[in-house]
Amino acid sequence: MVHRAILSLLVIASVAFFSPNGHSQHFDGLWFKLTAKVKGRTLEWDGKGTDVVESKAKGTVVGYMYVEDLSSLPKAGDPPPGTLYKGTIFCEVDSEWTIVDMPTFQTIGADESVMVGSGFPGDIGIVLHLALDGGDSEEGEEKVGGPSNYLRFVFTARSSFKVNKDGDVTKASFKSFEAAMPFGQADESYLIGGGRISAKSIDPSKLPFDPT
Amino acid sequence: MIHRVCLSILVLGCMALFAPEGRSQAMQGLWFRVTVKVNTRGVLSGSGDMDGLLPKLVHAHQVIYIHVDSNSTPGENTFLYHANIWSRDDFDEWTQSGETQFTTYQPGERLMAGATSGASDSGISIELPTEGGTLRVDFVANAKVKQKGGTTKASFKSIGAVVPEGSVGLDDVGTVALFGGATVRGKSVDSSKLPFDPS
Predict the structure, then answer these.
(1) Helix (H, G, I), strand (E, B) or coil at A152
(2) Whether residue A184 has pLDDT greater than 60
(3) How many CB atoms lie within 10 A of CB B77?
(4) pLDDT tens, position by position, A23-62
(5) Measured between alpha carbons, how far is residue A85 from residues A30, A174, B42 in Å?
(6) Closest by alpha carbon to B175, among B123, B132, B134?
(7) Among B137, B135, B133, which Cα is nearest to B169's?
(8) Which residues of A touch B77 (CB under 8 A)?
(9) Integer-rounded Cα radius of gyration of chain B
(10) ipTM of the complex model
(11) In B, which residues are within 8 Å of A193 by CB distance?
């Protein structure tokens, strides 16, 4: 038999089957607390390209995300096969909770067990940004569209839910398989690396800000 | 004080010193032997109630070759490289299967990131053939470049890598979508050591 390309896959266990697809739009209307643990490298330079310093870096970034179901929207082109959502991400910048990103994603699998990119152009994997404290702006200018100090993540994730007898989601969480951080900026430093993103649903009354 | 969103950066080691400007753009023309190890979860899709996450990790390992064939200097501190990807096809023949671009930060070219190195960047993207599908890996990497006596040696290792999409055909279950993480390592090789003739 022809030796085929190339990826030698080893599925360790036999395939198990899964819970029936009895619920959908589990994420709709939920608030999540996001925690990103990052590990990578920073680059700092003096603007002349001659005094660059590379350092190891690691840390934790926190944000909050509100999720809305977008599956009722009319779709153009090839619609994603899963349930489509939009997130609204809040981070604290200069002591104010600010919307810093509105990523889209979809869930696939029975019981929405996997979160992947929306399938729209440029969204291969879930792409989201979290702000670092103290975003800057030019003197005399207001910050528009979020802070300039941020980290960019690309990931996919596994999600899980607890559902009551009425079919309502009482708890939800997700955790990235892995996350790449292809770009970040903190004042005069660039940051790249990887990490993990995890999230747990929270009651909106526990938010540290008033989203209304 | 209000609890702030924070990134507590720990500088773990001493500052690294970089090579002088004369060593720049050292990756031009190099061949890399690249090992990609992926650590993914498989998802069955398209079979209704049977859809879902496979219970165990799906591991994969593949060797490809990358040839860096051109470069430019789009930014004051960056070099942009173009590279061709060679992998084995269904008939076990080495073929040029794709291309990619990446940026290195100078001086020293210690870090490798995606082509745009900015807000729209997903990292260095490579696509690998699988049996019955393809697998995409996006990554950023630490790099080392050594030049001695007119010879350049280089290597890199990912510091962040993700499999944002992929698929493989498995005999007993059909097409499985793959998502997860990866490790990507590359080491320069002399073109005479390639397992194929690229000409």
Answers:
(1) strand
(2) yes
(3) 19
(4) 468 999 999 999 999 999 888 766 555 556 778 888 899 9
(5) 11, 14, 22
(6) B132
(7) B133
(8) 43, 45, 49, 52
(9) 19
(10) 0.80
(11) 140, 159-160
